[in-house]
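Sample A.
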Amino acid sequence: MCLEGKPKLAGALALVAVVLVGGVGCGSADSTRELAEFYTQRIIWGSCSGFAGGDKLGPEVECAKVLVPIDYDKPNGTTGKVAISRLRARGDRVGSIVVNPGGPGASGLDKADTLGKTALGERFDVVGFDLRGSGASTPKIECLTLSETATLRPDDYQTDWSPSGVETVERNNRDYVDKCVERSGTELLGHVGTREVARDLDVIRAVLGEEKLTYLGYSYGARLGSTYAEAFPRNVRAMVLDSGVPLDGPVADLVKFYASLQQAFDTYARDCAENVDCPVEADPSRASHVLQRLLNPLIGQPIPVGTRTLTYSGAVTAIVAALYNPAGWSTITSGLQQLRSGRGDILLDAAETVPGIVDTTVQTAVFCLDDPRTTDRAAAAARQERMFAAAPFLNDGNFKGQAPLDKCAFWPTPPTGTPHTFSVSGLPPMVVVAATGDPAAPYDGNQKLAHQLNSPLITYRGTQHGVFLLSGSTCVDAPVLNYLTELTPPADGLLCQPA
């Protein structure tokens, strides 16, 4: 392993860390010297007001941009800038901790603000960053204009499975990628995968003045952390990987994701059934059926909500997002109760908040580079059939055995990653955190990740995605904070209950 190593990684909804990405190669002495300008640059911290999303950050948060090559194999070529943010430690400073919230494509700048105000910010400068191609980082991946989004972006949950419906979605996917190429160029579209983001992360470590990286990654952030650890094992000080998503290949990953969503929905349904006027039933098979009975009329007759409209896809988007944390379950219940009376305000309001959480344009680009692709319609149909079998609550019953090719099938550059088993020596102890009922990250995948990393696993008995500093569990938070500050890992097998 060496500093110039380039790991290759593999990877629908903001997801998915057991099998990790690729081989690591060593650059020449010449390439090391060529990268020196990036590793030795001096950044200038200042106000975040000129950064996309910066106006939402507290005045004490500082922002800067880090120069990086678009293609690390061509350090003298085109460059970009990665936006970073920092909230300085309140107390006796240990160093900087870099945080990634997941997605890929979730906003990173605000994590300095939100996590910096928790116990984490007592001893650490908390640093957030926007992935290359997203947010305040430049150049930004551009695909559709606002006016084009309505016509070229298919619904997240397809309902027309007729041959013409499949053809329409596939044509829209192809047109979408064509627009990406036209507006972003193939060089950028081919260099926004996790392989490059891990390289950016090491440059960030260097310009922060840290000899070794202290890192916290949630969901996709766990994949990124694992990739970094494989590429730069000697540069890791401490690393917490929370709610990592599986990386067994794109088809297996999607099926596991759908199965995890079904598990979360079943848990919600059992909880809901204990209350009066629950709109679904506690029996999992009945609950899924009752849900679709409520939602299916939206396929032919969406519900007007003022000048807006609640579609089937919008309702499902709202429900899936609400399953990520028990705090959202009341939204599902009240939204479905309202739907029974022919109104869709609650579900539509919830659905419209989801696109702002993750930059789906960047998410698509990362997944298309990190994963092997499905380029055969028969394979796409078989994948879809397995997904519906894993999550009956998402099956509208209209699937006819045909499915469109997705956007990645038309991506203009080849994948930069392939699934493989994580294997690296020289790493310090790391910590893996996982919830048993995580809606997006199967618990057994995190068990495998901890085993492959030879690191302790903290288990949280709960149904949510993201645990450390997000669950209110002192049982989880205290040992992780102690590990980050003192480098003393917790005992393996720690089991924590919800507060």
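Sample B.
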Amino acid sequence: MRGRSLRRRAAVISASVLLAGALAACSSASAANAPVRLNYWSFPDNSGAIQQAVDTCGAASGGKYTISYNKLPTDADSQRQQLVRRLAAHDSSMDILGLDVTWEAETAQAGWIEPWTGANKAAAVKDTLPTMLQTATWNGQLYAVPYNTNTQLLWYRSDLVPTPPTTWAQMIADATQLAKEGKPHYIEIQGAQYEGATVWFNSLVASAGGSILNASGTAPSLGAPALKALQTMSTLANSPAVDPSLGVQQEDQNRLAMEGGSAAFELNYPFVYPSMQMDNPQLFKHFKWALYPRVYPNMPSHVTIGGIDLAVSSYSTHPALAEQAILCLRDRSNQILAAVKGGLPPTLMSLYSNPSFIKAYPFAAAIKAALLSASVRPKTPFYQNVSIVISHAVSPANGINPTSTLGQIRGGINNALSDKGLVP
């Protein structure tokens, strides 16, 4: 009985295998004419702009490809960690990668993303903001295509401050005076121990005329501008102008504080504009913008540039189609969509003089001015380590001792560049 049962089971299994083979053959035959599915990994966009672009580009490909939008975690550190782990495992399900502007050096150096050449490179470079092309370039080679950019403006309440301050000292003084009058007065900025604190420090260093690393990215370059940056951060953190929750504040907490009516100033990205318009229409009437404050009255500010660059994974089995899809995803119409719907500034220069875009994006001129003079974060494969050193040293900001904190940052960066304690 047992032998007969085994033979019967074997026959069933054999039949199942033959049937599966036949189905697979049919599937392969039909799949030969089906569009290729490209997997696109990027930040989670809640506005719907990315999904709309994905659907539009798939439909416009003429049946060559469809795009599957895979959402990464919300915070940048977790996004990077997931991408790095998949790339290190040579994951062939990764085709298009949405990279934060600080990840290109690391991923290119590791051989995880493909360089752009020929006609597609020319198309990627044409009309693109020079500062964003810097973020997408490593060792003189273009490795990604700027999809959107980002930079901070000073957002303020015109009912409290008729004329916006032009320097950090003026802004702190204005906020202190409002506090004395018992009015909303907080200055909202990213002070939590994460990338936002590094961005704040980098913007101040650049605005004071310096940089965090030398030109070759091989050593710290921290002198008087870095000391001035730390003094500015400490001054705010120990003044009446500070939000008591500065040490845990990130971009969204800043937005909520401003919308809630407790703040007079906010250093933040353009996503706050459509959010204020929707969440607090009454306060929106007084919600204005100006350029990021200067550190010194006679020196323009240089705000840290942000954004997303699109790269082709070295492990994609369809790199040529992935490049075509990227050029579609970042074309004029999709950049306008991302800007108006999602609040993310475009990377194409000509859009900033487009009347219909300016009407929908009234602060376009201020964004363009900030982007053309923007600063780029330190370009090094060890950027993650450098950023962690800085954010841990400057947060909480009320604990900054400018001279000793500067020494701490310098020593930590030297270790980071020596690959000591690399963050996986």
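B remarks: The chain has two domains: 36-143+306-372, 153-304+377-417. The first helix runs from residue 2 to 31.
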